[in-house]
Amino acid sequence: MNKDFLSRGAAQLPVKWMRQLSGVALVVPYYHIVSDEFVPHVSHLYRFRTIAEFTADLEFFMRHFAPVTLNDIVEALNGRRTLPRFCFHLTFDDGFRETHDVVAPILKRIGAPATFFLNTAFLDGGGLQHHNALSVLADRLQSHQSVATLRYVDSILPAAKTNSATLQARLRSIHFTQEALLQSLAEILEVDLDKYVRKRRPYLSSEQIGRLLSWGFSIG
C-alpha cells in the first residue's frame, strides 16, 4: 500500500470513500526502514520515511483503522474470530537494525502492533544482502574518485541500456548472480564490505529480536 498516498489521503479523498472504493477491510502497509539519517546501504535504493513522516502515517492509521495483531489475523483466517470492519497491521521487511532502535519505540508509545520480517542469513553480522551492498558501493562511487578509477569502473560495469544511464544506475543493475563482479568493484573502490557490516551492524541481532518479541511484536 502506498504510504505517501495514505498520509495525504485525508486531504485528497474522504476516508470513507477510500474504504468503499478499495473494498478492503484489512490494510497491511509495509515498510523497510525509518530513519532521519543517511543510510549508505539503503539510501541509494529507495526513499524511506523520516521519523516525523512515519509518526504522521501512524497517527493517520490509528485515527481511521483499528490496529490488529498478527495473531488476530491468523485467528480470523481460521474462522475463530472476526476482525474489525476496517483494520490495519504494519509489516517491515529486511530486518534492519532501525526497526529495533527507531521503529519499535514509536510503535510501543502509540500502541500499534507490527510484524518484522527477517532474512536470517544476515543476522548477527552475517554479511550484506546483495542490494544493500550495491547501495554501499554506489555511495562510494558518488564520492570523489579519480578519473582513472571511474574509467575502469565504466569498463567493467554492464553495458548501459540507455544513453542516459549513469554509472550509479549501471552499478545498481548488477544481478545477484554476478557476485564476482560486485567483489571486484568493492576492491576497485576500496570498500571493505565486511568491515562495513562490523561497524554499522545494518541488521538485527538475536538479542534485539528477543527484545522485540518480549515487547509483543511478531517476527516473520
SSE topology sketch:
Layout: H1 3-12, H2 15-22, E1 26-27, E2 30-31, H3 51-64, E3 66-67, H4 70-77, E4 87-88, E5 90-92, H5 98-110, E6 114-116, H6 130-142, H7 147-156, H8 167-172, H9 179-188, H10 193-200, H11 206-214, E7 218-219
Parallel strand pairs: 1-4, 2-5, 3-4, 5-6, 6-7
Helix pairs in contact: 1-3, 3-5, 6-9
Percent of residues in helical segments?
40-55%
CATH superfamily of the largest domain: Glycoside hydrolase/deacetylase
Strand content range:
5-15%
Class of the largest domain in CATH?
Answer: Alpha Beta
**What is the name of the CATH architecture of the largest domain?**
Alpha-Beta Barrel
CATH topology descriptor of the largest domain: TIM Barrel
Mean pLDDT: 89
* Count of DSSP strands: 7
Overall tally of structural domains = 2
Question: How would you sum up the global shape?
Answer: elongated
